[in-house]
Every structure is written in structure tokens, then in C-alpha cells.
Amino acid sequence: MGSNGYLPLFETRLANGLLLFRPYAASVFIAICFIFFYRLSCFPAQHAKTQGLAWIGMFLSELWFGFYFSITVVVRWNPVFHSTFKNRLSSRYVEEALPGVDIFVCTADPVLEPPTMVINTVLSVMAYDYPPEKLSVYLSDDGCSDLTFYALLEAARFSQIWLPFCRKLKVEPRSPEIYFRNTADSVPADDSAMAQEWLLVKKSYEDMKMRIEGIAKIGKIPADIRKEHKGFREWHFVSSRHDHQSILQILIDGRDPAAMDIEGKPLPTLVYLAREKRPRYHHNFKAGALNALIRVSSSISDAPFILNVDCDMRSSNSEAIRDALCFFLDEEKGREIAYVQYPQSFDNITKNDVYGNCLRVIMELELAGFDGNGGPCYIGTGCFHRRDTLCGMKYRKDFKGEWKPMENDRNTKQSASVLEQKSKALASCSFEENTQWGMEMGLKYGSSVEDILTGLSIQCRGWRSIYFNPERKAFLGVAPKTLLQYLIQHKRWSEGDFQIFLSRYCPLIYGHKRIPLKLQLSYCNNLLWAVNCLATLYYVTVPSLCLVKGILVFPKMSCPWVLSFAYAMIAGCMQSLGEFVCCGGTIRGWLNEQRMWMFKRTTSYLLAFSDTILTLSGLSKSTFVITEKVADEEISRRYEQEVMEFGTPSVMFTILATLAQLNLFSCVLGIRKVVTDDVPIKILDQFGLQMILCSVLVFMNLPIYRGLFFRKDSGKMPSSVTYQSIVYAVLACTIAMY
Ligand SMILES: O=c1ccn([C@@H]2O[C@H](COP(=O)(O)OP(=O)(O)O[C@H]3O[C@H](CO)[C@@H](O)[C@H](O)[C@H]3O)[C@@H](O)[C@H]2O)c(=O)[nH]1
Ligand SMILES: [Mn+2]
InterPro entries in the record, alphabetically (predicted)? Predict the structure, then answer.
């Protein structure tokens, strides 16, 4: 029992296996030091200039890897995990006494983010196991699409049967699409009344979906539907999605006693918002959208807690709100918690996850490590915030964490349309002029990873955060289905991250004395992703080219120094494999993920690194490329079969293909050298490590060769990429040979 006489609402435990991990990390560290020592003491003789240069590069790369390894150890030093006591929460708070929760859903493009998916997210969060009169759901539509608006109207209607159905059948997950997909073969046949209802609701969902998709196909809302709601009139004044007034429509007014489901229970408030956009004003992407929502919601429902999700992050655990409240409302520790972050999980992951989409180890382990070091970063979706802290409040010892109870006056005088008019002004472009919004208030502007920056600044204001990863995943999103989408997404992340590192918000400076050093270093783990490109590029090209030219860059196989390299590499692999499998992955999945790390480092990170430098020198401007959440049938089929998708020409593919062939040629030339030499054993002894490295790289690149030379489908490597990369690779090897 806590000192205040209350049983805690959550408990925390340390990860298992730390007793093993720490000595292991120390041993790898020693091996790395041996490598440094070797590089310094065995520096090539004066006359071997080229070898000397190659050597220095190897040394610098290894210094970087050693440094980066140490940061990853800091992240893993003491991961913590939490569990909640929801029964204690419900015995301490009657339903009426629970706080209100505002839920923000962001969407930005009706084509890349289809409205049916968006409303599935909306319906799933409306159906939380939580008093509906305490919930308000806001959809921010940066695409300003009347189709999305229409879909939301349909969702408002469908919620009247969906919510009671969820309650009655204890439906899980509460996104109709996923629920009906999962239960397709298990129609409740035993109880006929139940089965009837199931069929009825399913049919009604499918009809709705058909109507929405039908209208999406025509590309225009028919006149008779336009007449059904006053909201459509707003689109008469929209000249384009980049130039329009704010559109704010309260589709379900929770204060209205008439707003109820078919069982007569209240419905959550549901609001559509397309904030004002004008070419003259920068809209600040998702951060701008969220800030508009914070203000608009404060005038409509003003709940003390806010959940924000991306439009593809359907709720998959109807108890997630109660779980989050167990942290915020804990009498002893709750006061200092600013946000509770859930992991990002996906429902379209194949068995071996070709693109390493689930970021398994980051989600299962590294964020728990952040938590142990002071609190997880904010990852932009699936996160519950205190409204006050999101709006810029600093932590004070005497902060009580109290909230005003909701004005539960369901017959309030202000009509919905008056409220709409009043709140609209808060979403206008000029509202933020000369205010602290985007700086000290709300989500921070100026970064393509607004989430990381905002979370960091909240932590630097003295707050703690919590990472909560329950058995039953809280949210399920849609992961990119093509290699290019994946690489572009990671370019955005690593670029935004690296920009933060180079800005005044660098955690080592900005966080100094504000957050613990171990948390500052944990942040560096992510913020320095992009920098890995340099050392990795060096390691995947130079040793192979040196093999072609006959330059030694590693110790001979017969030399004891080889042990330190072998140990560092093998132990590193075993650690990452062990972590991956413990986090629920397969061995194939691990190989795929390792391959993707290599691909990312040589493409996404490289471009992120160079673009950051260009942005800093004022030559380029950062943007937000939205991740596509749909794919055509053929691409989806290949994705299901775990075949890598290339298809469209891109610089990233040219780089990948060039590196893959460069290693293939080097490997072949290396083998030729062994075979044609008089004493093959000698060559093997000298170049053993280089040959192993080169062969591993060839092995990792197998899907690239397949895409270049063997595939015939439309997902193969485009021929322009093939030709270019052959030329580059041959050129590089020829230069190396002579
Ligand atoms: O101008 C914009 C651009 C994007 N979005 C929304 O932002 C969300 C995330 O965009 P997405 O294209 O799905 O990017 P992801 O890479 O999947 O997003 C991850 O990375 C982002 C930071 O780069 C975080 O904001 C997200 O929460 C996190 O899921 C989506 O709901 C979009 O609709 C907007 O509302 N307005
Ligand atoms: Mn996304």
C-alpha cells in the first residue's frame, strides 16, 4: 500500500536477463577495444599509401560502430515493464466520476488513406469500453475531402448499431472490418438470435462500405446525398485542399439527449474538422493539425486527457483507456506522468516480415529501455496525453493532477451550430500568429518528426512518461507494403531525427540537467540513425574493393587479432538474434530485419544525412511524404508471399543494386584469386575475413539479384536501374583492379 493509504493502480518490474546482459556487453566492449588497439599498433608500413588510407577509414568506421554500440547498451541497461490493476480503478471511481477523454484521429489524403479505413479507426475508438458520454472523437482531415466527410456521416449512423453490438457481444477488436474478417468462419451458429444479429450488423457494415467505395469510384458525392446534411454546403467554398476556410461539423453532439444508439444509451461526441488552409501560411503538417484539434476540442469537450492516433491505427483493445488511466490516476506516481505511450503494432505483417516492418526489438525492448532511463519518447500515435502538459505546462512539485469534472449538462443552452461557429475561429490560419503555438504550446513545429521533438520537450519540462505494452495490442496499424514506401518512411524519420540532433534541441544540450544523462544518450540512439550510413557504406564497399585489389584490411586468419573481430561480430549477431527471437520473431524474420537495416543504412540514412546537410545550408526544405496505406492487388499478393517489391525507378534502388553487384563481382574475383593461386591456402589466410564479409553481403543481397536478373513480374527491378547499376558497379571494380 502506498504512503497515502491507497493500493497502487500499476506496478513496475525490471526486465529478466540483465545479469547476463551486462557482463556480456562488457565483454563485447573489451573485444572492441582490442580492435582499436590492433588498428593502432598494426598500422601499415609507410610505403603502402593506399592500404594506409583504407586502414584509417576502417578505423574510423570501427570507432563509430563502437560508439554506437555503447549507446545501444545504455538503452538496454534497465528496461522496465508495467502492469495495471483495472479492478482497483473501477472500485475507486464510479463510472460517473471518470474523467473525459478526447480522441484525435488524423487523416490527410482520401486516396492514400481510404475513408473506409479511416472510419474503421473512428468506430473502433468510439466503441471503447468507457462511458460514451465521456468520450469525444475528433477527425482532422488535412485532405479536406467531402468523401471523408461523407464516410464519417455514415460512420455516425452506423455507430448507433455498432456500439450496442460491441457491448453485447464483447466484440474485440472493435474495428468492424477487422472483427468481421477475423470471425468470418466462426459465425455464432448456436444461439440463433445472436447469429441473426451478427449477420444483420455485418450486412449493414458491408452495405455502408459498398456505398462509400461506390461514391469513391464516381469521385463525386451525388446531389441527393448532398442534401442530407448541411455540412456538404461548405464544399461550395473550397477552391482546393490547399486553399479553403475551416470546416467544422459536429456530427454527433454528445450533449444532445437525442444523440443515442438503438438501445437508448448515449453516443460519444463526433466532430469533423478540416482546419483552414491558405497558400500564404505554412500548415506544419500533422503537428499543425493536432494543435488545431487541441484548441477546437478545448471549446467543445475540453477533456483532461487526450488520445491521439493516426488514421490507420485502429483500436484493438477496448480497455486501453482504462489501462492508461491507471497510470495517470495513481495517487502516488500519477501526478508526474505526462503521457502514456503504447507501441505501434500492425495487422498486416506476414510471418517473416520481409521489410522488418514491426521494428520488433525497438517496440518490445528499446522503448522499455527508454522507460527505465526516464520515460519513452513520444512516437506520434497511440499515445495518451494530459491536456495540460501537451499545452506546455511545466512540472511543479505541488501539481495535484486534478481535473475539472465534465459539465455534464446534457441540455446545455448553446446549440451545436453556435458552438461550431465559435470553435471554427480556433482552427483558422491566422489564429496562431504571435502566439506560442508550435513552440512552447502544443506540438512543436519545424520537424518532420514532431512527435519525438514534442515528447523530448515535455520530458525536459520535468515530466515523466510511461511505455505500456499489454499482451493484447492496443492499436493495429497498416505497415507499408513496398520496399520504396518503407525506405521513404525511414528517410523521413532519420532525417527529422538527425535534424533534431543538430538543432538547439539536441538532447545532450537541451536535456542537460533537465533529463538524466542515460535518457539523453537513449535519445541519441535514434537521433543518430542517419549517421550510421557513413561507416556502413564504408564497410560494405571498401573491404570488398580491397579484396579485388589485393589490399589487406583485416588481420590474417592465423593471427590472434582475428579473435577480437570474430568475437565482436559473432556476439553481436547472437545478441540481436536472441533479442529478436525473445521478442517473438522467427529466424527468417531476423535475417530479413538485418537485411533491412543494411538497406536502410545505405539508402534512407544516406539520403537523410545528405538532405539534412543541404537543409542546414538552406538549399532544401523538409517535407512530410505521407505513407500509402493501400496497395493494388498484385502488389498485395507479392507482399503476402514475402517477395520484395521494387517496380518503380528510384535513386535508392540504384544505390542498392550497385552495392549488391559490386559485392557480387568482388566475391567472384576473390574466389578466382584463390583458385588460380599456387598456394590457395595463403590467400585464404590473408583475405579470409574480407572474403567472409563479402560473401555475407552477397547472401544478404540475394533478393536484389533476383529482382535484377531473374524476375519477370512487374515488381522486378526496373531496367533503367539495372543498366545504371551495372555500369556503376563494373566501373568501381575496374578502377579497383587497376
Ligand atoms: O500534413 C499532414 C501529414 C500527415 N498527417 C497524418 O499523420 C499521420 C502519420 O502519417 P503517415 O504517413 O502514416 O506516417 P508514418 O511514418 O506512418 O507516421 C509515423 O511517423 C510520424 C512522424 O514522422 C508520426 O507523426 C506518426 O504518428 C507515426 O506513426 C497520418 O494519420 C496522416 O494522416 C496529417 O494529418 N497531416
Ligand atoms: Mn502510418
Answer: Cellulose_synth, Nucleotide-diphossugar_trans
